[in-house]
From TrEMBL:
Annotated S-S bridges: 67-94, 156-199, 185-212
Superkingdom in the source lineage: Eukaryota
Gene source species: Gadus morhua
InterPro entries: SEZ6_CSMD_C4BPB_Regulators, Sushi/SCR/CCP_sf, Sushi_SCR_CCP_dom
SUPFAM superfamilies from the UniProt entry: Complement control module/SCR domain
Sequence ranges assigned to domain Sushi in this UniProt record: 35-96, 97-153, 154-214, 215-273
Origin organism lineage: Eukaryota, Metazoa, Chordata, Craniata, Vertebrata
Disulfide bond as UniProt keyword: yes
Protein name: Sushi domain-containing protein
Endpoints of the signal sequence: 1-34
UniProt key word Heme: no
Keywords annotated in UniProt: Disulfide bond, Repeat, Signal, Sushi
Length: 313
């Protein structure tokens, strides 16, 4: 950024008008003061030597600017002369110092105002990495003020071994983020849970290690039914048997039983007695009471109506 602004203190036309006005009012006395300059000010520059403290800048005085802290000269001279109340133009131009960009392996850098003087760099690591060092650095006059942090990979301690299982494999003391370990249950044992675990960004393996179970279901039994097909003893995990009901009974449920992880059979199938409905005639479907009554009634007109009773068992 090159700043080529004019001497601020001496360019305001209102000030100049006021000075001229005053000098005309005060006569010879005012005339002498009107030739002085106000303190010269520039945003990217500062006065050198003894002029920094000065308050009085008489006509003919030569002062020198240099680039302010955090700025670098890109050429020109900082000399300026007070000439009848106005500072002459100087050629010095100053540029904000640039610290250059920073690199963070396995992370990300964000800058508040680019990479120049005064900007703040903020560091963050990608998932599975931890920042060691300072989270923020400021670009100073000559360099970034402080050491760039680093991103180190998250480590997980080894998950425990599991009874009746091989693993975790591979076997290590520490695992890097995203490493996967596996367990395998011994013969005749069934895994309950996940066979593989992953080192997550919180430094722990997930999910929890599995367990290995000896699954054995007892002989299945459905009252008033018998096994039609399926597994024979011993009944292990996922053994499946299919039942049918004895004559006079019908299946409620699927009639399929599966040996579960907790060594119990799934399903609540039942054989229910079939309800036999006797209908001597189909002339009526109106249900009536179960109590047999007089089979015939003599009506007023003398005709005989035969009543049929439907008996529900
Ligand atoms: C149906 O099962 C029950 C219980 O097992 C038993 O007491 C009953 O005798 C069986 N009924 C028939 C008709 O087999
Ligand atoms: C299987 O593992 C889960 C989770 O740890 C547990 O809640 C459940 O009781 C286990 N099942 C058996 C049959 O042990
Ligand atoms: C066994 O597991 C099944 C399915 O998870 C469950 O419905 C049942 O209540 C369990 N039985 C026992 C005795 O724990």
């Amino acid at each position: 950024m090159v700043d080529s602004e004019q001497v601020l203190g001496c360019k305001a036309p209102m000030g100049l008008v006021l000075v001229l006005l005053l000098s005309s009012l005060l006569g010879p006395l005012g005339q002498a003061q009107a030739q002085d300059c106000e303190k010269p000010m520039r945003y990217t520059m500062s006065l050198t030597g003894e002029h920094i403290q000065k308050e009085h800048f008489p006509n003919g005085l030569v002062v020198t600017f240099e680039c302010a802290t955090g700025y670098r000269s890109t050429g020109g001279s900082g000399k300026t002369t007070c000439a009848a109340g106005t500072w002459t133009t100087s050629t010095l131009s100053c540029e904000k110092f640039n610290c250059g960009s920073l690199e963070l392996v396995n992370g990300h850098v964000e800058y508040s105002e680019g990479t120049s003087f005064g900007s703040v760099a903020t560091f963050s690591c990608k998932d599975g990495y931890i920042l060691s060092g300072r989270e923020k650095l400021t670009c100073g006059n000559t360099e970034w003020l402080g050491r760039t942090p680093t991103c180190s990979v998250v480590k997980c301690d080894s998950p425990p071994s599991v009874d009746k299982a091989e693993g975790p494999s591979p076997k290590r003391d520490l695992y890097d983020f995203a490493s996967v370990v596996r367990y395998k249950c011994q013969k005749d044992y069934t895994i309950n849970g996940s066979a593989s675990l992953k080192c997550s960004s919180n430094g722990k393996f997930t999910p929890n290690p599995p367990t290995c179970l000896m699954v054995r279901c007892n002989a299945p039994f459905i009252p008033n039914g018998s096994q039609k097909s399926g597994a024979l003893p011993s009944y292990v995990h996922r053994s499946l048997v299919e039942y049918e009901c004895n004559p006079g009974f019908k299946m409620e449920g699927k009639g399929v039983l599966i040996c579960q992880l907790n060594s119990t059979w799934s399903s609540t199938s039942e054989c229910k007695a079939i309800i036999i409905t006797t209908t001597p005639t189909t002339t009526t479907t109106t249900p009536t009471t179960m109590t047999p009554k007089t089979p015939a009634t003599t009506q007023k007109d003398g005709s005989v109506v035969i009543l049929y009773y439907i008996v529900y068992y």
